[in-house]
Amino acid sequence: MPVIAVANPKGGAGKSTTTLVLATTLASQGASVTVLDCDRNQPIAGWRAGGSKNPLVVDSATDEESFKEKLDRHRREQQFVFVDLEGTASRLMSRALFRAHLVIIPIQASPTDAELAARAVHLIKDEGESFDKTIPYRVLFTRTSQAIPTKLEKAILAQLKGGDIPHFATALNERAAFKSMFYHQLDLQELDPGDVNGLPQARDNAFRLTEELINLVTEKEIAA
Fold it and tell me: Which top-rank group of organisms is this from (predicted)?
């Protein structure tokens, strides 16, 4: 089953938010999904400890040996396995990238994020070349305006296209609902529209991004 790694050397780029939004959306639609939380701060494991009824399975894997064993087991049992990686390069990250069917690189529309995303791309390519393997990846813009893209976002997008760096057509917008998932420890369907501004729009954003992800991993499975 597809292994989807979420990686970026920069903290605060939206790795855990991206992982939680995609994983819970898939699980709420009936897919069997596991997140391996490899971040030492354990943000998604902390979310799972709350009151959400979402069937998402969360397992901690902060060392190389437990990661390999747990990844192999969850791949046999689940339809999707997400790996929320710590920003620091490590042997665990190396193993996750090697085993990934797709690597998502979340970035905000800032020069610093774009530079570190380029480093992540080089790391992915170097890892693939070490094993004579192509590791698919996609850049994902996070915390973007839901209205009109900023000039900086357009400029960075033009750079990505000029460098033939693949990216998601759908961005993960700046929405209070995505932060509220962690605060209330609930998924998007469980949050109360009366308590969270823009919740219907956040749910639609999550659905469209998840749909694009499914199409991507399905195409790669057929190609493989």
Answer: Bacteria
Those residues whose C-beta lies under 8 Å from the C-beta of residue 216, and which sit 6 or more positions away, are 102, 138
> 6: Cβ–Cβ under 8 A, 6 or more apart, which residues?
15, 16, 18, 19, 82, 83, 84, 85, 103, 104, 106
**Whose structure tokens read 């749909």?**
211
Give the closest residue to 210 by CA, choosing from 19, 5, 36: 19
Total length of the chain? 224
Position 169 pLDDT exceeds 80: yes
Q: Does the model's pTM come out above 0.70?
A: yes
3-class SS of residue 222: helix
pLDDT surpasses 90 at 218: no
For residue 14, pLDDT beyond 60:
yes
* Rounded distance between C-alpha atoms, residue 173 and residue 17, angstroms: 11
φ and ψ of 57, to 5 deg: -95, 130
CA distance 141 to 43: 20
